[in-house]
Write a structure and sequence with these properties.
This protein has one domain. Helix content is 17%, strand content 34%.
Length: 114
């Protein structure tokens, strides 16, 4: 029933980003990294979103940050492994043990219930 998963790859474009610490705009890209975010199930299949996230240099001398990652509003949060929608669903269904495991599986988590 849940054999396959949907995988969505995304790459954000744009001229730059603002430093979250000081607000200075930056266009200097430090690097790119791929993240994998678990999302809610789509048509009964587990869904993963793989955004390509850019890291920028902060050139402000007074700022403590040297680099920062550009977050995608409504999709990524710092250190997040799930989309905000998937996180809300998981918190709403905060059941432990086998019951929680079964419900997690029904909503696209790939771990099989026992």
């Amino acid at each position: 029933m849940f054999g396959k998963s949907s995988r969505i790859r995304a790459r954000r474009t744009g001229p730059g980003a603002a430093c979250p610490a000081c607000g200075t705009s930056s266009r200097r890209v430090h690097s790119r990294c791929a993240r994998t975010l678990t999302d809610t199930a789509v048509a009964g299949r587990a869904a993963d979103i793989e955004p390509s996230v850019r890291r920028f240099f902060c050139d402000a001398a007074a700022c403590g940050k040297r680099t920062f990652a550009k977050q995608v509003d409504g999709l990524t949060v710092r250190y997040g492994r799930r989309t905000p929608a998937a996180q809300r669903l998981r918190e709403r269904v905060a059941l432990g043990g086998r019951a929680g495991e079964r419900i997690d599986h029904l909503h696209g988590n790939r771990r099989r219930p026992r």
